[in-house]
Structures are given as structure tokens and as C-alpha cells.
Amino acid sequence: MQDYLLMIVAAMFINNIVLIRFMGNCPVVGVTSSYESAVGMGAAVIFVATMAGTTCWIIQKTILEVLGIEYLQTLVFILVIAALVQFVEILMQKVAPPLYRALGIFLPLITTNCMVFGVSVLNIKEEHSFMQTLIFSLASAVGFALVLLFMAGLRERMDATGRVPSLLRGVPITLITAGMMGLSFAGLLGMA
Amino acid sequence: MEPVLTAILTVGAIGMLAGLILGVTAKIFYVHVDPRIGHVADILPGANCGGCGYAGCTDLAAAIVQGNAPANACKAASDELAQKIASMLGISVDQQERQVAQIFCHGDAAHAQRKFVYLGIQDCRAAQLVSGGDKACTYGCLGLGTCVQGCFFGALHMGPNGLPVVDTELCTGCGSCTKICPRHIPKLIPVSQKAAAFCSSHDAGKVVKEICEVGCIGCGLCKKVCPENAVEIDKFLSVVDPAKCTGCGKCFEKCPTGIIQSVVLTRDLKKKAA
Amino acid sequence: MAARIVNEFTKGFWKEIAPLRFALGICPSLAVSTKVESALGMGFAVVFVLCMSNVLISAVRNLVPDKVRIAVFISIIATGVVIVELVMQAYFYPLFLVLGIWIPLIVVNCIVLGRAEAFARKNTIPLSLSDGMGMGLGFTLSLVVISSIREILGSGTWLGMLVMPEAYPGFGFLLRPPGAFVIFGLILGIMNVISARIEKKTA
Amino acid sequence: MKQPEFVVSAWPHIHSGNSVRNMMLHLIIALLPAVAAAFFVFGVDTLRVVTIAIISAVFWDAVLQKIFKRSLSIGDLNAAASGLMFAMLMPATVPWWVLVVGTLVMLLLGKHVYGGLGCNPFNGVLIAYVALLLSYPGLVGDTPVPTSDMMMTQNPPLMELKEKGAEFLDETFPLQDLFLGSTLITGTIGEISKLALLVGGLFLILRRKISWIIPTGFLIGLAGVATIFWLIDPETYASPLFHLLAGGSLLAAFFLATDWTTSPVTKTGMALFALVCGVMTMAIRLWSQWPEGAYFAVFMVSMLTPFFDKLRPKIFGSKFNHQRQAQS
Amino acid sequence: MSLRELIQMVLVLTIVTSVCAGGLAAVKLVTKEQIDYQQIKFIKEPALKKILTDYDNDPISDRLQIVTGKDARGRDVKTTFFLAKKGGDVTSLAFEAGGSGYGGPIGVMIAIDPKGGIVQAVAVTTQSETPGLGSKIVDDPDFPSQFSKKPVSANFNLAAAGGEIQAISGATVSSSGVSTAVSRGVELYQNVKSQLGL
Amino acid sequence: MNSGRLRGGIQFSCPLTGLSSPFEGIPSPPKVIVPLQQDQGGVCTPRVKKHDVVLVGQLIGESPNQNGASIHAPLSGKVTEVIKAFQDIHGRAIPAVAIESDGQSQRFEAQAGAEPFAALQGAGVVDFDRMTVPLAAKLEEARARKVNTLIVNALDIEPLLSSRGRLLLEEVQAIAAGIDAVRKTLDVNRVLLAADADANEAIAAATKTFGGSVQILPLRNKYPQAVDYLIAKRALNVEVPFAHGVRIADIGALVVGVEAMTAVGRNQPVVERFISVANGKGHIKNLRVPIGTPIGTVLEHCRITPEPGGKILAGGPMTGPAVAGLDQPVTKEFLGIYVQGRREVVKPAEAVCIKCGLCVEACPMRLMPFLISGFAEKGMLAETQNYDIFTCIECGCCAYICPVRIPMVQFITFAKKQIMDQRKDA
Lengths: 192, 274, 203, 328, 198, 426
Ligand SMILES: Cc1cc2nc3c(=O)[nH]c(=O)nc-3n(C[C@H](O)[C@H](O)[C@@H](O)COP(=O)(O)O)c2cc1C
Ligand SMILES: Cc1cc2nc3c(=O)[nH]c(=O)nc-3n(C[C@H](O)[C@H](O)[C@H](O)COP(=O)(O)O)c2cc1C
Ligand SMILES: Cc1cc2nc3c(=O)[nH]c(=O)nc-3n(C[C@H](O)[C@H](O)[C@H](O)COP(=O)(O)O)c2cc1C
Ligand SMILES: Cc1cc2nc3c(=O)[nH]c(=O)nc-3n(C[C@H](O)[C@H](O)[C@H](O)CO)c2cc1C
Ligand code: SF4
Ligand code: SF4
Ligand code: SF4
Ligand code: SF4
Ligand code: FES
Description:
Strand content of chain D: under 5%
Distance between the termini of chain D: 62 Å
Shape of chain B: elongated
Number of helices of chain B: 11
Strand order of the largest sheet of chain D: 2-3
Oligomer: heterohexamer
Strand content of chain B: 5-15%
Radius of gyration of chain B: 27 Å
Helix content of chain D: 55-70%
Structural class of chain D: mainly alpha
Bound molecules: flavin mononucleotide, riboflavin, iron/sulfur cluster, FE2/S2 (inorganic) cluster
Mean pLDDT of chain D: 90
Distance between the termini of chain B: 68 Å
Mean pLDDT of chain B: 85
Low-confidence stretches of chain B: none
Largest interface: D-F, 47 and 69 residues
């Protein structure tokens, strides 16, 4: 239990997937200009990353490792993720149109989000058990969503009462701010 | 050879499974979205200026595809683009003359009086709310450049005399500036128009004379001399009808304040295009 | 035709230089740019994958049904990536160790799929190759620029050679993740300045 | 044309006379007792560090204002105040070039890239502190600093705690010395005398330049966590009093967490912000590799400021009960 | 969508993925040898250099693989032994064993003098422990040196578990990972000693 | 006492010297210009022509509706012009009547015996709160909503204005008569009088006159507590969510200023205005000024020479609108005249909010002024509404306290206007 708790804290904050592991930066820059899109993207990624993480783990353990073709991991995983994302997209469009309208536009972006694929690979690399895979994928994705949300908060404040030079507005200042967020996370060094 | 076969069969099977799942779900959960909407949106300028009256370019694209808006509904798109959209959708467009904005006030600091010194937000709309604006003329340009901010196409800039200037080549005739200006000083005219009275004041001539040296005083001399009957006086303000005006120039000579002037938008454009 | 090929090639270096212009492929640009050496390695890996995927995707572009488009494209891309992975392991093992998880992650580098979607599936093979090459080299160029700044100011070296005075203490901050973000952001700002200048001149 | 005579503008037409300069001046004055205490312990080095930090901060501010094409505003004393604040986080032994680099980072990333004073989401002083800590760990942060006695080189209290545990803390660092500051206690310039910090902090509170809620909440959060652990195992964990008086607790509580720009503005937001800062400080001190967590904590938690500010006061009339009161 | 389209979709995807996989398998076949060699060279060699002192051959070339057990699915598990020779005599026998640490698996290279039955030295090959804490198993030479010059019969467990090894304070888990690896390695050595033919 | 606390606001330390200075008349001006709109009730229709002769109190502009306030001649003399588009202090172009005095001050005899309530419209009484509204409209609303509590407001709205405190002392009899009149027409069973706690003399006079019939509420001066909503809150401890359409009348209360009560009590057309004159140095005089008198004439009488580059305010220094010139006439919208020298003019800032939170602390409506104003500046109108821009009473506390001098009130009024325009369009 305690191990799982530590794993959650570590995956969410201490080794935050965006700020420390450098994955999933494009959406942090691209979809944080408003809370709504940050929340939408965050929710979509939490869902997809958890599904993808566990599915990939199962495939790795039951197929790739059994047959000794681990080197095809990259090919298989990305295929699974791409299919999964598209499956979810089609399903959502039909079953929950309002949700689709809110999250749908983010789904195609997720296929090429390093974070989903990265988490799937990390699960294997760090030899997680199934339970650990589930928790790690979920916690990492939540950590990602939190960064999106914090960034959206900071950007809203900057938009409302800031005066970022026009040449740095948008992507550049978001990157710098992400850097500052990561810098503050240096305080957690040595925790896990 | 065995490892190769293993690889091919496993991954092939996974691929097939993925294909099946996608295919079957796509079949079961089919939702039709008109792909043409995306294509039209691609052609539109994407400035989201709202000049068309729709909430952004994609919205207009949907309207055009559904036949709720004409192919040339986008004020900012050139005729060429409208033609492109029309031919893609297999519909026709009515040719309409291109319009551009002109600034209907020449009352700069040297020629028009101010009531007071304004201190505060540098935005004409905000200034208008403080005692009705600092200009003595309640119709004249306040000169804080809100229209410049409002133009999505960078077609406006503030001239050295503190009045906005239109770059007729960049202006798409979207009308955003007219809408945003608290006094509606920028007005759209057809590019072929040859004369205009560059004043917006409906004040009586006596009042105008007191506060502005370049205002239209509504004396009606232009109306009198115009051989084409192209000039009307609307509440002390001379208005030229572009359909009738031939640009003969008789009114220019007669106007006591010199505010009815020749307009040469077309030549300007041709020169630039060359 | 030749002119178009050249054009598709050169646009990747300034006008559409990928990570810098479109904020795509940010992660690897940040992660592997501590040293010029690894930046070059990563860059060339991406060039290879991009060229390969662009060519193959362009070749099959008319055969692929829309619904499985992405799956097919990404399989092709993944194949390129695994080839790079295997070859790098076989012949450039130290580089493989440095780049680590970022090699398989090329598969999700937004630029690669982005070019497939935006370009290769609509264009002929020569054009696609030229586009892939240009984009890939542009990506490499961005990585080299970022990593040069980071390596020179951070460790005082460039491609491992000492370029700063012996006593230069090195600003370790720049070698850390936050330093990467900051340098990336500032480069984007500087590019905006330059673009604005150019635009003003041509206008 | 006739010139207009009078000015017309929107109301209000009078002003309280508050200004950034005035607020910065207060900050500088409030830090002077701490500088004096450090001078007593480290001697002239204190002045060296403070002077270089202020001068280079003002210099970089001016340079960056030029680069970013802003009007020159070093007269608002912000750069000077930030420079002084930055010096507070530096040990007296720090080389001059570290100060120059640090102030550049502080003003570039903590002010100008965001558009100048008031736009930065993170406190420039903390950005510079952490950047330097990561780059030159031996030169800044908790390093042993020779005091004017020159008799011995002593570890700062929190470093001693991290390295040797809580066992002999009471003997090594008498609480009285921790509070008043003495040559037994080393640390950064601003960490010497807690009394001096308290005096400065109360001065700011009484002059209504900062809110009392933030320091109070910070110290409550910090002492709360420290107490829990201390009660669990007083052998392993230092006492809450030690945690309050050691390192940068008070400096962070009164001078860093209260930085206007990066802290919340609503009372509830301030209270939560401060509590989280305090708790986070303890978490870092207990479990991370760093001896001191107060600065990191404030830096990190300011990321949440926009969210704490969502906890805004109930507006006028929000308690109105539409059915009942409308009839009465 | 028609059935024809569906079949086309599935077919295309199947063919593409099969072709991709086939191609990759081919590449893998071609590069396999080279990859193995590189892995050994870059991961094992530094550790080998650290623990092997007295030899005149290339232990990487002089290696042999022995089946040392079966995994959960019944497949053979092979261990590679590196032989250090001096003047043709085997002076040391080096191989890798594993344990698990705080941040993940820990690999340890162990050198044993087959004649004397003595553990000559131990070095960590792979680890992902907390820098500054668990990573002391690599950075702090005092820790691995505890294993040196002990007979294979010694108890390589941590002192807390009744063994002879002092854990690094604050990094018990990492220390225990190393000691478990060494214990396992020594046990494995005892089991396969005969097969090695030395 | 069931009184509510006022959070925020500004405690001004300016001397209350104005309370001890009695109202003076000023010499009748030779010429007046009377704008025909002086409140929120709409433009009055001119009832005189050029060259007509008018008497003091004679109707010259008739209210456009039942609950408006008509406008009367302040002088006897000749109408020299009915101006079509006179630019008033708000920059509106409205009709106005110019009258040349004949020096006689002869009064027009109104038809006697009219019931005060019905006569309000005819008498042109207005009440001043955040805006000037016809008293008749307020009373009509009170009647419709069965108001039972009358709160008479003798608090001066702004620092350096003291006309209300002084009126309570000097016109206490008229106020008493006014209260009685309102009591008769509305079913009022409770009357409260809010007065400045420092206005000892006036409170004493009120206590003596009213005895127990009126409950006196002495309040310590704090800006902007004299605003209707805040008076209601302090007196009854109910906060009225006015931005959501709830009116003070909905809680059964009516707040009326003493100058309106005086006018009701006098039951005569309103032809003069009680104002305080002040400048940067402090209070100067309390005056009774005929409506239409040019500001310049009033200032001459007070021996104040305005400085070019300075400001002239039609009201107090916090919310008085600045006027363009000295020829602007005093109207019913004036509570005072405040003259500011060139150096006292507050220059709005170029700088950005530093999030010090002082404005949040100062806002009596408990809003987040810096955010509203920031959103307004960026044109993010939806967000300003999320932050309750319409609950802002534009009191100016935020801008007053702000260390970087952000013109928050102007941003807020600007955004409100844009939102209203959008709503109109939709
Ligand atoms: C944030 C954090 C990081 C840790 N990192 C390590 C580590 O790298 N290696 C290790 O052996 N233990 C690590 N630990 C675990 C504790 O140090 C260990 O479990 C604890 O029981 C201390 O016991 P010890 O002194 O007997 O080692 C870590 C614990 C925490 C909370
Ligand atoms: C250092 C300091 C600490 C304070 N601590 C508290 C406190 O813990 N609780 C409290 O209710 N008020 C405390 N106050 C007083 C509040 O600031 C108080 O609400 C204020 O002085 C007066 O409030 P008012 O403006 O509502 O009249 C403290 C004041 C100071 C200067
Ligand atoms: C730890 C702590 C938490 C507080 N939390 C709140 C709060 O959630 N909301 C609030 O309005 N005031 C909060 N306060 C402030 C007091 O309630 C304060 O006395 C009251 O708001 C009046 O403020 P004043 O001191 O400025 O007058 C808190 C104070 C402290 C010390
Ligand atoms: C109590 C108080 C604390 C402050 N703390 C800081 C600080 O830590 N760092 C800083 O740069 N400015 C500080 N300032 C000044 C100002 O808010 C700061 O310079 C801006 O955030 C820009 O960096 C402080 C001001 C006051 C009154
Ligand atoms: S035309 Fe209108 S918007 Fe433009 S500067 Fe003049 S007043 Fe302002
Ligand atoms: S000048 Fe006016 S009409 Fe022309 S493009 Fe700009 S906003 Fe549109
Ligand atoms: S003007 Fe509005 S926002 Fe400002 S203090 Fe007054 S009520 Fe609050
Ligand atoms: S008082 Fe001014 S600087 Fe302070 S928070 Fe409010 S708007 Fe910002
Ligand atoms: S490169 Fe990582 S999310 Fe785009």
C-alpha cells in the first residue's frame, strides 16, 4: 500500500512526466490557452494513457515476451495506441457527442503525444507489475493533467493582468514558464 | 527464418485485429460529417474577424456548405478565393464590387478644436465615455487609434497628423474598423468611387465653422454644381453617390472648406499590383 | 518540378523549421539537447525516419483507406524507428545509451506523423523525400542550435571541445531541463524578432 | 486652434499616494536589521555581497529595460529591493560573479521576459536562487561559512540536521543564538538573526505593506508538521522551535511568501497558500536531498496562486436569500 | 461503409503491419550479433575492467554461455561467463547477477577466482537508484569493496540479515539489492561450477 | 441596533470643516443656461420659446413621463435662446434654455394645494445616489413594492462635501415636513436617519426635532458608505444583490437623501442647488446656487481661480465627473464643485498591476478589481462578467489605493458599456 502511495506521489510530482521526464510538452504549450481546453486535454490523456499503458503491458507480457520479439515493442505499442485513440474517438463521437465536442479535438493529438507512448514504454523498462502499471500510468497522466491545469492558470493570469512582450507571447513564454515550473520541482530532488 | 515468420504472423495478426476493431466500430458508430466544411474552412483566410456575421471562419464554412451563406460571404476573402470555394462546391457567385475603408474626418490637431485635455485609457471607445470625448466636434475622429487595433489585416496605421490612414491594398473591406469606431469614422466605399466629402459631422454649418476648419458645413454648393446630380446633403453633410459621380471635379473647386475631394483608389491599386 | 523540390527542401530551414515554428516535437528538442553530439545523433535519426516514412507513405498514399490511415502511417514510421534503434545499437552503442528512450519516442515525434499527414499523403515521392529531408535537417538544425548554446554556456565545450576559457565555471542550470525550456523559449523570441525585421524590410 | 484649458479624465481624481517606490522602500528598510545582524557575524563580506547584488541588479534592470524597449524605471527601486532580497539568500562567501549571474537570471526570467514588474508568475529571487543552487552547489545555499571569529567553520543548522541527525542539535545550536543570531550560527546573510527578521516583518505588517495572514499561516503550517514528527520521535526529528528558528523559515514567511506579485490576493487564498508553503517546507526538509526547503516551497507553491485566487470573497449581496428576504 | 471497404481496410492494415514486421525481423537477424557484442562491450566492459586486474587476454572474446536454469515459461536462461587468463591459465571468472533496488533492478558483475573459490571483486553494472542516496553503491568505493576477498562460502547478506555486509545508511534497500545479487551470483556459481569445466 | 459592518472602503482623514460653515446665497447671475436633462429620467420637453418672459419657478421643461422631474426657471427674465444641442457635462447633446435675468427674482405662483407626492414631478425633485434619479420614480417604485421603512440619508457622499450634514442642521424643519409627507403617502412605519457621527450639532438638532419618531443612526465616516446599497446594509444588515435585479425596495426600504426630503418638505419647484465648494487645500464654502449658474461665476464668488491644466469637478474628488469648461452650468446633478490644481492631477499609469491585493482589500463590494480591470483592458468581456463586473458601484476605492495607479474605474465603466452594447445588439 505504502509503495503504491509513494509510486503515485513520485509519478505525479517527484518525477513529473512533463517537467522532469520531458514528455508531452506539445500539449502543454498548445492547449493551455484556456482552462476548458486544458481540462479537456487532461481528461482525454488520463483516459487514453491508462488504457494504453495497461493494454501495452498485457501485450508485452503475453505476446512479445512469450515469443521473444521484444524488439518489435515500438511498432506494436504505437499501433495499439493509434488504434485505441481512433477507437475511442469513433465511439465517443457516437455515444457521447457532447463529450466528443469537448474532448474530441484533442484525441488525434494524443496519438503523437510522447507521454502516452512514453508511459507505456516506461512501464516495461521499469519492470512494473500489472497493478503498478495501472497506477503508474494513471498517476503519470494525472501529473500531466495537473501541469496542464497549472499552466492554464498561470497563463490566464498572465493574459488578464500581464504584459508579455509581443515577441515572446504564446509559445515562447509558455515554454519559459514550463521551465520555471520544472525549476521549482528541483525542490523535490532526492525524494524518490 | 523462423523468427521472421513469428514476427510477421504476430504483428500481422495484431494489425488485422486493430483493423477489424476500427472497421467494425466505424461501421457501427458511423457519424456523417461533411468533409467539404473542412475544405472550405481551409480556403477561408482564417482571421476569424467576424466581418461575415458568423462566429469565425469555420462557422461560415459550415454555412456556405449548407447553402446558408453565399460563397463570397467572407468580406476578407478575395474574389479569387470566393471563386475557388464556389467551383469546389459547384455553385456560382455574384460578382460584387470590392469595397475599402476610408477615413471620413480630416480634423487633425491643426484644424479641429478640442474641448479639454483627455487623460486616461488610450482607446477611442473609452475616451468617448469620458464627457463624450475630447474633440469639440461630436462626430470627429478622436485619434486614439482603436480602429487600427481593430483591423485584422494590418490595413490601418496612425498617420503623422494623428488620424488613421488606410492602406487600400491591404484593406479587405471587412468593416471591422467601422464597427469598432465609436464614431464610425471609417466608412466602406466602392473602390471605383471618385469623390467623397471626408467629414462625418451632421452639425449645422455655424457650429462646424466654430470648431473645425475642414468640416462639411452643409452649404450645398457641391450639390448645386454637380452636373450628374450625384451629391445629396443629408442633415448638413454632403454625401456622394458613387454610382452617379464621374469624378469631374467641379465640386472640389467650389467647396469652401475643401473637404469634398477626389478619391483615386483604383489607380492606387493598379499601381501597387504592377 | 525541380524548383518545387528545392523549395520543399529549403522551407524546412527557416520558414517552416519545425520545432521552432510550430511548437511540434518539443520534447526531444529539450531532452537530447544537452550536448551537440547527441543532438546530431538524434537529428540524423529523425532525418532517416522522416525520409523513409515520407517516401513509403507517399508510395502507398492512394491505396490506404481513410479510416486506417493513421494506423498504417504510424506502422510505417515505427518500422523506420525500430530500424534506427537496431542499427544504432549495433554500430553506435554509446549514442544509443545517451539517447535512450528518445529513440523509440521518435515514433511519436509530432513532426514525423505531421509531415505524413500534411505532406506525404498528398504529394509525389520525390517531393515527399525532399520535404522529409528538409524538415529533418531543419529539425537537426534546431537541435544543434539549442544544444550548442546549452553546451557552450553550460559546460564550456562544443562537440566536446573546450571553447570557453579554462576557468569558465559553466552554468549548470542550462544543462538541466528548465534550462532547456528557457533557451528554447528565448530562441523562439529571437526568431520572432528576426522574422519581424525581415518582414519589415520586404514590406 | 484654441488650446483646451482643463483636463478631463475618469474618476477617481485623487490618489492615496501609494507607489511602487514607496513599497520597495519599505521592503529595503525592513531588511536592514537583518543586514546589520549579518554584518555583526560575517563582517565586511556582508556589505560586499549586498553592494554587489544591488549594483548588478540595478545594472541588469536598466540593460534589460533597454533591450525590451521599456521606459527606464530603476527609480521605482524594485531592482534595488530585489537585489537586496537576493543577497539575503546568498552566503557571505559567495564569489562576485555568482551574484552578477544570479541577478541577471533574476531580472531576466523573474521580471523582463514576462513584461516587467508585476507580470512574473514566479519570484525572480527564488528563480535565481534555485538556478544557482543547481549550477554551483558548493558556492551558494547551505554551505559552511567562516564567521568573523575565524575560529571554526560551522555547518548551517539545517545542514547539520540533514547530515548528522537531530541528536546533538540542542547543544550545537542553542535556541537563543538561533533567535538572536550569533557567530555560532552560520547560513546565508538573511538567515542570521530571526529577531531582526521579525522586527522587519512586523514593520511591514504594521505599515500594511504585507498581510499578516501569510506569515502566520506559513509558520503555523511549518510548525504543525514539525510538531507531529517531533511528537512521533523526538530523537530523529528536530523540535518545531528549531525548525521555526533555523534556516530561512522566517525570511521566507515574512519576505518571500509575501511577495505581492506571486502570492494570492484574497484572504482565504493567502491563508491556504501560506499553510501549503509551510507544509511543503517541512516535506522538503524531511525527505528531499536539500537541507532547506522554505525557498523551494514558496517557489513551488506560487504555481498554485491563480487557483488560490479563485477562492475569492463572497461578493456583496451574494448571501441574499431571494425568496425570504424579498418578502420581509 | 460497405463490407468491401471493411475488408479492404483490414487487409491493408494486415499487409502493411506484416511487411513492416518482416522487414524488421530481417534487420534484427542481420544486426543481432553486432548488438550483442556492443552491449557486452559498453555495459560489461567497464565493470569488467574494474574488477579484473591480472590478465593478458580479451575476456570479452573469451566468453562462454551456459544454461543456468529455466524461466517461468520453461525457456532456458543463459548466463555469460567472461574468462580472464594469464599465460593461458584462467585467473578469474566474471559474470553478472541481479537484484532489485529502490529504483529498479540492479546488475552486479562478480569476479571469482575459480581456483581459490574467492570472490575477487564486485562492481555495479546497471542501476537506477536515487542520485546521492542509493547511487552510493556505485559512487562510494567503500561499499563494493566489502565483498572483495571473501570466500564464496561467506554470507553476503546485509548485517541486518545476519550477513557480513554493512549497508549504506539511508539506502538499505539499494545495499540489499547489491548483496542479494552477489549472494545469488555466488550460489549460481556453486551450482554450475562443474559445467564450467575449470 | 441591527447594523451591518462595512468591509473595505477608505477612511479619509480630511477635516470636516465644511460642517460648520453655513450655506450662503450667491448674487443672482445675469444669465443662466438650464439644460433640459438633469437626471436619468429622460430629456424634458421645452415649454418656452425664444423671447418668452419667465418667472422664478415657472415650468420651462416638462418631464417626458409621469415619474420624471420637470425643470423650472431659476430666474425671472427673458428666454434668449432655446439651444437644440447643448453639450452637458457628460458630453450629451441635449436641449437647453438660456435665460437673461431681469434682476427681479419674481416668483411664479404655483397652483397651491397639490398633494406633495403628486407634485413631485411638477416640482422637479431629484434624489442623488450614484446617479441622479427623479424622486417621483423612486417613490412610485416604493409604493408599488409596499415599502415600510424610510431611510433618510444625511451622510455626505464624498470627502470634502458637507452639504448634506449642513442641510440636516439648517433645514431640519423642512426635512421633518418631508418625512411627514412621505409617511402619509407611503405606508411607512419606521423611519431611520443616517448621519455622520461627527456632525454633532446636526444630530442634536435632529434629535430635538424628531424625538422618538425617527431613529438616528450615527455612522463613522467611511467612504463610500453613503451609497444607497451600503446605507441599506448598514441600517438593515441586508445586502441587496442589485446586479441581479433586486432593488432596495424589494427589502421594504427606501433611501432618500436629505436634499430631496428638504425639497419635498418645502413643496416648491426646485430652482437652486445646495453645494459645497472645495479645492485641493480643503473645504471652501457651502453655497445655495441657482440652477444654471455657470461654474465660473460660482468660483468667482469663492475667489478661486482655476489653473489651466488643472481639473474642475462637478462633485467630489472621488466620483465627480470632470467638466470641460467654466461655462458649464450647475445642475441638479451637482453635489459640489471641486477644483484641482495642475500638480494635483493624477496621471493614470502605463505600468502593470503588481497584484499587491490592496484593491481587493479596499473594494466595498468585495470584488477583484485588478482582475476585472485586467480582463476589461484585454477586451475579455465574458470574464469580467464571471468576476461580477456589474456589482461594481464604480466608487473608485480600488483606483485610489492602487500603487501603480491603474485607471481601474475607467476600464470597468468601459467594459460595462461594451457589454451593454453587445446585449443591445443581440
Ligand atoms: C523520497 C525517498 C527516496 C528514497 N530513496 C532511496 C534510495 O535511493 N535508496 C534506498 O535504499 N532507499 C531509499 N529510500 C528509502 C529510505 O531511505 C529507507 O527505506 C528508510 O527506511 C531508511 O532506512 P535505512 O536508513 O535503514 O536505509 C527513500 C525514501 C524516500 C522517502
Ligand atoms: C501581526 C498581526 C497579527 C494579527 N493576528 C490576528 C489573528 O490571528 N486573528 C485575528 O482575527 N486578527 C488578527 N490581527 C488583526 C487583524 O488585522 C484585524 O482584523 C484588523 O487589524 C482590524 O480589522 P477591521 O479592518 O475589520 O476592523 C492581527 C494583526 C496583526 C498586525
Ligand atoms: C491561518 C489563517 C487562516 C485564515 N483563513 C481565512 C479565510 O479562509 N477567509 C478569510 O476571510 N479570512 C481568513 N483569515 C483571516 C481572519 O479571518 C481575519 O481576521 C479576517 O478575515 C479579518 O481580516 P483583517 O485582519 O484584515 O481585518 C485567516 C487567518 C489565518 C491566520
Ligand atoms: C514584503 C515584500 C516582499 C517582497 N519580496 C520580494 C521578493 O522576494 N523578490 C522580489 O523580487 N521582490 C520582492 N518584493 C518586491 C516585488 O514584489 C518584486 O520585486 C516583484 O515581484 C518583481 O520581482 C517584495 C516586496 C515586499 C513588500
Ligand atoms: S476613426 Fe474612430 S476608432 Fe479610429 S482613431 Fe478615429 S475615432 Fe478612433
Ligand atoms: S481597414 Fe477596416 S475594412 Fe479594411 S480590413 Fe481593416 S478593419 Fe477591415
Ligand atoms: S470601483 Fe468597483 S471594483 Fe473598484 S472598489 Fe469600487 S466597487 Fe470595487
Ligand atoms: S491595487 Fe493596483 S497593483 Fe495592487 S492588485 Fe490592485 S490593481 Fe494591482
Ligand atoms: S514532442 Fe512530445 S508531445 Fe510533442
